[in-house]
């Protein structure tokens, strides 16, 4: 049986055209027409005014923190239920990650827990330098409430939209809600440049500064002169060419991933004890990954691990939901606000194969295997 992957790259055939142009013009550099074109594509699509294409989403998050002046011992509030890349750049800056629980309606950072965290850190005499909200698996966080809290307490909001390109919230595209917004084009994301990311903002000065920092912070001089510490974080013109080809089909990719989700939820609707990631009114997920939680009390004792292993035995890749950051050995001792929402999601949750290149036969194989696993 051929392997069914969780989320594999899905090329459109348009990428080669842009890559070919780069080769023909000898633009084999970390800047060039594809980088400019890709940045324009991202701005047009998300409705955000300015974008810098970078070498990864992690690099984009790092530059966001650098530009907000996050430094030694500063507090940054971060959604706990996420991939480690959301939090690692806080530590690159010598700052302190403080983790916040999710709420059950979107699985993302909870406004109540966030408010508690802001007030408690303030009471400790700490100034919160930034909030990082994430849209996990493409599901928008409660952005209006989070924006309002940040406004009220005068804290810059960073939107980690690495998993959410193509998703929207009350008609507004993700990647446009924060003061600074982050996208990723890693190989497993909804579109890919093989590896890459972007930083977006309506504030042009931020994006100009990000480009400057990402190209080793070279001052305007004929020789190499530096007044600041720089980074080598720009995206290559070749990779940006792949991105331009991918952006031609982004809406088709979203539609296909949403169709995967619709198939799974329809086929498993009658299965007791399975609950898919909810999509609240006004939210439009890109369904980057189709995920559910499984309640062993309702399945006669069948657990997430039972299902995951049943799938693995049939050469189907599935993964537990993200392990929350406050439970990671590397962040042991980091302050945490909230309850056990994220912890419970991790314990009982599973991500199913979700690529936009899956066939009906692939999806059928996954469902048949899950149904069998539930009967065991
Ligand atoms: C993928 C991802 C990132 C990091 O992006 P890279 O391009 O892999 O560095 C950050 N945050 C989240 C939530 C992600 O899923």
From TrEMBL:
CDD domains with a match to the protein in the record: AHBA_syn
SUPFAM superfamilies per record: PLP-dependent transferases (SSF53383)
Enzyme class, first EC level, given as a word: transferase
This enzyme's EC code(s): 2.6.1.102
Domain of life: Bacteria
Pathway: Bacterial outer membrane biogenesis; LPS O-antigen biosynthesis
Family: Belongs to the DegT/DnrJ/EryC1 family.
Name of this protein: GDP-perosamine synthase
Species annotation: Runella slithyformis (strain ATCC 29530 / DSM 19594 / LMG 11500 / NCIMB 11436 / LSU 4)
